[in-house]
Amino acid sequence: MRTTLLAAAMAGSVGGAAAAPMSLQDYLALSGPAPTRHVTYGAAPSQFAELFQPAGDGPFPVAVIIHGGCWTKEFGGITQMRNMAGDLAAQGIAVWNLEYRRYDEEGGGYPGMYHDVATAMDRLRLLAPEHKLDLSRIVLVGHSAGGHLAQWAGARARLPRTSPLYVADPLPVPVVISLGGLADLRNEEALIKTSCDRDMAQLAGVASAARPDIFSDTSPAEMLPLGVRTVLIHGEHDTIAPLRVGQDYARRAQAAGDAAEVVSLPGGSHYDEVAATSPSWRIVSAHIRKALGLQPR
């Protein structure tokens, strides 16, 4: 398995002093510019997404970003992701910032949460002509719980036809970037309980005769090979989803024939992974640009 360790100097602040890892409070204080457009895709309050359209004529490459927060409405989410959305839009990248019903919202959890992500993803096909979005250049970027959902969204073509989540023609995405993601629900069940206090029934539903394995259509690791390239980025000091999580997933993906790369953010925490104000952003944004075929900054 290939692990990329970038020089610690890249994570240093001005003057060479190391920046302190971001805390949950630092993360919750993140914000960014207002979106270009607010788009609802359902009747529930959380069924919407935000489009950030860059200046210029386009066509624009697209980054779909999915917030985390332990699959609960308790820890913010879409507002904090505007921080990275604003920076990406300033680079000429259109951003589709997804909201979805979490496990503790009416209709959330399984299957509603997954339906929301899928519906929001496929809505891009309707928006692309008007907003000059180049869907041939697209990357999925998810953080924490959103890393799981991003990897799941990238795996939709592998969903079993018997699943309530199956659709015939999901929007294809060639690269998924998981930032501190928790995508192997079966093997990381204990960690998810420790880190997020989530039970699997809240995330993956309950078994039934028609669906005996709750991980078969909810855990990307169970659908390998996905036919996508996965970049798993973890902060050096990430205690919610440690580097080991990405390494274990990459090992499984590579064994199944998928391309997978693990990246460590020197000095970074779980929250540095999504902050454009963090020194770690130089590394994260470079991988987003690479996935979209853009030159380094």
Write up what this structure looks like.
The chain is α/β, with parallel strands linked by helices and 297 residues long. Helix content is 29%, strand content 18%. The chain is built from eight helices and nine strands. Strand 4, helix 2 and strand 5 form a beta-alpha-beta unit. Helix 3 crosses helix 4 (145-154). The longest helix has 20 residues, at 112-131. It starts with a strand and ends in a 6-residue tail after the last helix. Mean pLDDT is 93; it is low at 1-17.
Looking at how many chains there are and whether they match, the oligomeric state comes to: single chain
Order of helices and strands: EHEEEHEHEHEHHEHEH
Query: Strand tally, please?
Result: 9
Strand residue content: 15-25%
Mean pLDDT: 93
Shape: globular
Strand order of the largest sheet: 1-9-8-7-6-4-5-3-2
Secondary-structure-derived class: alpha/beta
Q: What does the main sheet amount to? A: 9 strands, mixed
Short description:
The chain is an alpha/beta fold and 297 residues long. It is 29% helix and 18% strand.
Keywords:
single chain, 297 residues, alpha/beta, 9-stranded mixed beta sheet, 8 helices, disordered N terminus
Topology at a glance:
Blueprint: E1 3-5, H1 24-28, E2 37-40, E3 48-52, E4 60-66, H2 78-90, E5 94-98, H3 112-131, E6 133-143, H4 145-154, E7 175-179, H5 189-196, H6 200-204, E8 229-235, H7 243-256, E9 260-265, H8 281-291
Parallel strand pairs: 1-9, 4-5, 4-6, 6-7, 7-8, 8-9
Antiparallel strand pairs: 2-3, 3-5
Helix pairs in contact: 3-4
